[in-house]
Amino acid sequence: MSIKLGPNRYGKAETHVVGVTKNGGVHEIRDLNVGVALSGDMDEVHLTGDNSAVLPTDTQKNTVFAFAKEHGISSPEAFGELLARHFVDSQPTIHHARVSVEEYAWERIVLGAGNEQHSFVRSGQEVRTARVHYDGEKSWVVAGLQGLVVLNSTGSEFHGYLKDKYTTLQEAYDRVLATEVNAEWRYIGEPSDWDKTYREARRAMLEAFAETYSYSLQQTLYAMGERVLAACAEIGEVRLSLPNKHHFVVDLSAFGLTNDNEVFYAADRPYGLIEGTVLREDAPAAGPAWE
C-alpha cells in the first residue's frame, strides 16, 4: 500500500487587531479579525518533524500587529494582500498564502460641533469579509459580507411550484420575504478604492432586493448578483447564499380576529437555503480564489 502526504497548509487563525488612526481629536477605527494560512515546502515537518521550513504561527500573529502599525489599515482587501505578499516574498519555503479578513464596523458618536470625535458604537449587523491568495506571481481577491438581514413586508409571491402527496404549503400571492444576505464577489481587476467598491456592491444588492417584485427568492438572488456586476466593473463573479427566513401568517380566527397579512410567526428553523452564482461570461478563471 502506497501512502503519501496530500495538500496541506497551516497558519494563525483569528488574530483580532484594532487599528486607531488619530488625526488630532478625530479618530478612525478599523477592527479586523485576520486568519493566515500558508503552504509550500512542508513535507519534512509532517514526515520527520523537521521545522526548518516553518514560519511559526506566533510570528504570523506578530506580523499582523506590526503591519497594522507600520502600514496602517486602509481596507481589509489591501491589508490582506499586503500580508499575503509579505509571507510569500520574504520566506523561500512559503509558496502560497491565503489571508482571510473579517471587518466589524463602528459608527462614530458625534455629540456636537467642536467635540472630540473618539467615541463609537458598533454599527450594522453584517460583517465585511475579504480573502486574498498570493502565490509569488499573482494574487486573487474575494470580498463580501455576511449576516446582512433584509425584509420586504410585501411585493413577494410564491406559487405555481411542483406538488406531490407530501405538499402542504399553501400558494402565496402576498407574502413577507426575508433573508440574511451572505455574499462574496471575485475581483477580476483591482479597484482604485476598495472601500468605495464595497459600498457600491452592498448598495447594489440592497437596491435590487428592494426594487425586485419577487416570485421566488431565486429570482431575487439573480437580480442582486446582476445588479452588483452592472455597478462594479472590477467584479467578475458573485456568489450568494440566502436562507429564507420564513414568516407565516398566524391564524387568529379562534379569537374572532381577522389577519390580513399583519401578524406573522417568524420561524427560525427549518428554513429554505437558496444559493447561486452570477458571473460575467467572459470572466477569467478563478484560480484558487474561492478556497
The percentage of residues in β strands lies in 25-35%
Shape field: globular
Query: What is the number of helices?
Result: 5
**Rg, Å, rounded:** 23 Å
Uncertain spans: none
Largest sheet: 8 strands, antiparallel
Please count the beta strands (DSSP E, at least 2 residues each): 12
End-to-end span in angstroms? 30 Å
Mean pLDDT: 95
Q: Give the neighbour order of strands across the main sheet.
A: 1-2-3-6-7-8-9-12
- Helix and strand succession? EEHHHEEEEEEHHEEEE
Helix vs. strand class? alpha+beta
Helix content: 10-25%
In a nutshell, what does this entry contain?
Helices cover 23% and strands 34% of the residues.
Distinctive features:
291 residues; alpha+beta; eight-stranded antiparallel beta sheet; two-stranded antiparallel sheet; 12 strands; globular
